[in-house]
User: Which sequence fits this backbone?
RNA sequence: GCGGGUGUAGCUCAGGGGUAGAGCGCAACCUUGCCAAGGUUGAUGUCGUGAGUUCGAAUCUCAUCACCCGCUCCA
């Protein structure tokens, strides 16, 4: 499968985005103010979906496991923490662009060059009267012909021409001057063209702590955390001291993180504010590689349990040289999005790098005492780090389905169904009185509704025709619809009294079930 | 950040220097009946935003913002 999306996939993605807005899953942030780039809000159904995902993740990884404890750390993070973790130094790169080719270069990786710089102040075209005032330079090494500088400059100025028929050769250069330059990194080594000034692409959101914070206060600068992991490492010692734990054990956290992405793309996939679901699983060094493999399997099963089949997932064993320098093994779990195969989760063996760094920078003894081995050690760590919003997007993409069905009159129509697993579905059951102008039906339906609401998200709908109500529920992925009809009231005798029809989303089949069994039936299906 | 495209009702989109349009959806009512049914009635827009040209701009020009595609970037 290609990484690029085909036209068909683009259309599919547009339909998904449209449905998400129309039905209240996802809205763009601050839309009425023109929209915030790279920020998205979850609407009523999106919020439910996200809660279901987070709750299930927490249940599987914390509630149902004795070896993992939860944590919920602050988002504001001291500069010193991020200095220790390496984010402060390595998280921003000075970048510059070639003015001629628009190539982007790392400013700190340019070889210094020497030679003669040819400066220009602009260019003009006599016949058309066109001109441009803009400083530009070209650097030539010693043995290059000076006409090369002029040729390059004409090419540069020609991009401002509105009439593309004019040949760059016809341009008249203005204000040529030369200058000897040594060890400059202002020019593109490839073609000698001037580069833009280096810009820092700081990927972290910086902020001020304290109302009167000033620059000189080392605790005056804070960042919105770029990952949840650091909270866990920094609180490692406190968690160990306040709980009886033995290796291996994990600390889990769900929370927001922030990265000032240069170019947010693909709907919510690359957002500037996003939620992570992370575990740092601490272990002895000799178990690190094995546990990484085990976690990969555990995590793949999780995706299956929430309705993302293994066939749509890809595991990338990140090769040497592409992993973070401290990682001995990293698996990326990727999903086949309509816009390409993209990462959902990374399972990384981070060695003892993080704890070591924090021990070094904080100067605090944060070693773990292993009671069984009677030794002090710094544990290694395996990190399954899942993107919550990315998983939501995968759930939505996976659920979306269009089904062609033929009605009684032989007419074909399209049924749009969100095939969420009942466990993830934002609405678990819709309660529908067959007709709303019959008070007995409405009263009974309300009774069923309030019986179920303490246990699950129930949607009550009495408008429009029953068929239409079913289809509405299909479009938001409600797995079950319960209809209260005249049999429920006992009109057809005692046998069907207090039974309802339950209609299943995927098969559209219905059967009768006593109201008394409804709760258990539904709970079994959505647990 | 660069290049290309798009922006009009909740959604999908047509139109186009002179009264703002369609389909679907939505709301209300009627119908003892189960897969977008039928009928009646109704609501909704600073035509993305800001400036300019014009007697007059949703339409033309410029800027700007957002989204999509490609490139780039992704510790």
Assistant:
């Amino acid at each position: 499968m290609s990484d690029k999306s085909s036209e068909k996939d683009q259309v599919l993605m547009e339909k998904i985005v449209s449905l998400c807005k129309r039905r209240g899953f996802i809205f763009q942030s601050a839309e009425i103010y023109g929209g915030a780039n790279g920020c998205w809000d979850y609407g009523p159904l999106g919020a439910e979906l996200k809660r279901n995902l987070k709750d299930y993740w927490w249940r599987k990884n914390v509630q149902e496991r004795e070896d993992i404890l939860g944590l919920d750390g602050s988002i504001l993070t001291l500069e010193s923490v991020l200095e220790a973790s390496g984010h402060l130094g390595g998280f921003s790169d000075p970048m510059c662009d070639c003015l001629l080719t628009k190539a982007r270069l790392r400013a700190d990786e340019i070889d210094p060059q020497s030679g003669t710089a040819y400066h220009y102040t602009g260019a003009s075209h006599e016949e058309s009267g066109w001109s441009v005032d803009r400083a530009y330079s070209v650097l030539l090494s010693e043995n290059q012909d000076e006409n090369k500088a002029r040729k390059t400059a004409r090419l540069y100025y020609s991009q401002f021409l509105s009439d593309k028929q004019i040949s760059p050769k016809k341009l008249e250069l203005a204000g040529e001057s030369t200058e000897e330059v040594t060890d400059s990194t202002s020019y593109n080594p490839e073609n000698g063209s001037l580069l833009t000034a280096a810009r820092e692409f700081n990927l972290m959101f910086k902020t001020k702590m304290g109302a009167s914070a000033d620059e000189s206060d080392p605790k005056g600068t804070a960042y919105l955390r770029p990952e949840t992991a650091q909270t866990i490492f920094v609180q490692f010692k406190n968690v160990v001291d306040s709980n009886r734990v033995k290796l291996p054990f994990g600390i889990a956290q769900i929370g927001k993180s922030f990265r000032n992405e240069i170019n947010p793309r693909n709907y919510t996939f690359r957002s500037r504010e996003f939620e992570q679901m992370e575990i740092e699983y601490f272990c002895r060094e000799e178990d690190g590689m094995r546990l990484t493999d085990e976690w990969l399997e555990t995590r793949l099963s999780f995706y299956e349990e929430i309705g993302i089949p293994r066939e749509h997932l890809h595991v990338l064993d990140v090769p040497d040289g592409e992993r973070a320098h401290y990682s001995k093994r990293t698996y990326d779990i990727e999903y086949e999005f309509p816009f390409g195969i993209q990462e959902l989760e990374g399972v990384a063996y981070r060695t003892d790098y993080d704890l070591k760094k924090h021990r070094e920078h904080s100067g605090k003894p944060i070693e773990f005492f292993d009671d069984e081995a009677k030794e002090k050690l710094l544990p290694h760590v395996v990190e399954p780090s899942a993107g919550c919003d990315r998983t939501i997007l995968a759930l939505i993409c996976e659920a979306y389905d269009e089904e062609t069905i033929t009605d009684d009159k032989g007419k074909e129509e399209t049924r749009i169904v969100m095939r969420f697993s009942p466990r993830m579905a934002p609405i678990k059951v819709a309660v529908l009185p067959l007709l709303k102008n019959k008070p007995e039906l409405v009263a009974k339906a309300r009774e069923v509704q309030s019986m179920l609401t303490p246990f699950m998200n129930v949607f009550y709908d009495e408008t429009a025709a029953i068929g239409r109500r079913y289809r509405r529920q299909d479009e938001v992925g409600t797995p079950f619809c319960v209809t209260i009809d005249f049999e429920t009231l006992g009109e057809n005798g005692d046998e069907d009294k207090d039974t309802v029809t339950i209609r299943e989303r995927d098969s559209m089949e219905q059967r009768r079930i006593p109201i008394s069994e409804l709760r258990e039936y539904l709970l079994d299906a959505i647990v």
Observations:
- The radius of gyration of chain A is 31 Å.
- The first helix of chain A runs from residue 7 to 22.
